[in-house]
Amino acid sequence: MKVNGITDVFFDLDHTLWDFDRNSALTFDKIFKLNEIDLKIEDFLFHYEPINLNYWKLYREERIDKKSLRFGRLNDAFLAIGKQINEDLIFKLSEDYITYLTTYNFLFENTIEVLAYLKKHYSLHIITNGFEEVQHKKLLKSNINGFFNTVTNSEMVGVKKPNPKIFNYALEKANAKAETSVMVGDSYEADILGAQNIGMDVVFFSNNGDNKKGVKQVNKLIELKEIL
Prior knowledge:
The chain is α/β, with parallel strands linked by helices and 228 residues long.
């Protein structure tokens, strides 16, 4: 069923439009080869991915800073896999990861088609917790920057989703109202609950099959055409 009365659509970027897991895996493969680290990428990612999610939760909750996130997630993953890596190399890997991450810019299926469709009917925007310098490159290099009227990231505002300040900042920047806006994102805590708390409508993007009751949900981006 189509949602009525919406003028502005806000998207999360990582894990919603930009295929973070795929691009991240390719980046690790590249920097491990560059730094001559003999490690199966599948084994590393098995440990790294849940550790990374937990570090991002701590970062969202203002319990750690950017430097601690970048170092800690790698250090903990190597410890979990039993690989001895010295601290200097971990710092170098953390820098190389950021440097090369936007070398790869795979988007989720039908991203361009869906954005082109929505752009005809709504003003489109981004709200992201990602690092400003990296998120800008992702948008440019994946050729989706032109779809969005505004981009709001957590470093601009000084707080992260689900903090209401970042949503209110994004609405003001977009000259939009909460009651005529919808947030599309993959994080139930950061995107969905955060947007609902300030009165925005929401669409939960569950590309991993996670089901949440009481909210509009899509498993593929193309399904947004049935809602918006």
